Amino acid sequence: MARGRNPTSHDVARLAGVSRTTVSLVLNNVPDTHITAETRQRVLEAARELNYYPDVTARRLASGRTHTIALVWHRGPDRAYRDAFLPGLLQGIASAARHYGDHVLFRPIEPDEPDDGYVELARGRHADGLILSGPRSDDDHLLQLHAEGYPLVLHGQLPGAGIPSVDVDNVRGALAAVEHLLALGHRRIATISNAPLAYTASAQRLQGYRQALQAAGLPYDEGLVALGNFDEESGRAAMQRLLARPERPTALFAASDTVAMGALRAIREAGLRVPGDIAVASFDDIAAARFITPALTTVHVPTFGLGWSAAELLLQIIAQEAPAQTQVLLDTELIVRESCGAAP
């Protein structure tokens, strides 16, 4: 090979003693080619020795695939890259994709971007399939893509849509957190949602809150319900409104740790103590939850497992395999720390 020239498939073929067609079939992992294991190993060793990587465009032409899956995140870039939940999820997706020889494209969607902001990824075949995190009940474009047969997996649920999904049991997790506050003697328990209620996870966590109150024989008071919007500032503003009520709550269930952090600041700014004046329980168990003061009692969500399971399910669908199940629910666990006032 001439000095300074990038290696080509012809160089790999010559070193391995096979045809360029065989090199293409092996390196693009084209199924059903009846290439022997010994020949396949020679090609892989030759490519490694020459530091040869097949051109992405050539791979697409050879296999009909981009070998890329996309994660669509329902937050704008500013919020997305500050979201403490995202790294674990993305790490799980990337690890599974790498295991299958694929890459991951990350696409955050601005709050004011049309709901079809991700459709170009699908229709333009920039990715072989999408994982959409945070599905909305009013997203008709998602239903249309599913009807067209485009490979989709939801991180979250959209009941009745029939779209494959991976999630935790949001209702049961929220129920456990509020039951814990009830067991500590609280009867005036407020809640702040993690997001607008058009997002199914937000609606389900509110449902768990309501079920816990109902089981305890307590009325559902809309005055104790406030809406968050993914970030700390929305939690702070929501908590300020709850504290301004004539009779303030004695406990709070915040439907995400991020929203809870904003609520904690509002409580401190009001001259109140956690858990002395207001007990707090939350949801997600992000990395910072154990290090803030007081450490958050929260529902642990297995973010890496969610990411891995979503990517694995999507890649099985793309490969036209039959997944063992298409609606996956992973377990949560209530982690008791200082913010609720109970001894760990």
Which fold name is given in CATH as the topology of the largest domain? Rossmann fold
CATH superfamily of the largest domain: Response regulator
Strand content: 15-25%
| SSE sequence, one letter per element | HHHHEHHEHEHEEHEHEHEHEEHEE
Low-confidence stretches: none
- What count of helical segments does DSSP give? 13
Radius of gyration: 25 Å
How would the global form be characterised? elongated
Residues in helices, as a percent range: 40-55%
pLDDT averaged residue by residue:
88
How far apart lie the N and C ends?
66 Å
Counted up, domains total 3
What structural class results from the helix and strand content?
A: alpha/beta
The number of E-state strands comes to 12
How is the biggest beta sheet arranged? 6 strands, parallel
In the CATH scheme, the class of the largest domain would be Alpha Beta
Helices and strands, with pairings:
Elements (H helix, E strand, L loop, with lengths): L8 H8 L3 H8 L9 H14 L5 H8 L4 E6 L3 H4 L5 H14 L3 E6 L10 H5 L5 E5 L6 H8 L4 E4 L9 E4 L1 H14 L5 E4 L7 H16 L9 E2 L5 H12 L7 E4 L2 H13 L9 E6 L12 E4 L2 H16 L8 E4 L2 E3 L9
Parallel strand pairs: 1-2, 1-3, 3-4, 4-5, 5-11, 6-7, 6-8, 8-9, 9-10
Antiparallel strand pairs: 10-12
Structural notes for this entry:
- The protein has about 350 residues and is of the alpha/beta class.
- The protein folds into 3 domains: about 55 residues, lambda repressor-like DNA-binding domains (434 Repressor (Amino-terminal Domain), Orthogonal Bundle), CATH 1.10.260; about 130 residues, Rossmann fold, CATH 3.40.50.2300; about 130 residues, Rossmann fold (3-Layer(aba) Sandwich).
- The chain has 13 helices and 12 strands.
- A 6-stranded parallel β-sheet has the order 2-1-3-4-5-11, with helices on one face. It has a 6-stranded mixed β-sheet with strand order 7-6-8-9-10-12, with helices on both faces.
- Helix 12 links the parallel strand 8 and strand 9.
- Helix 9 packs parallel to helix 10.
- The protein is elongated and about 80 Å long.
- About 45% of the residues are buried.
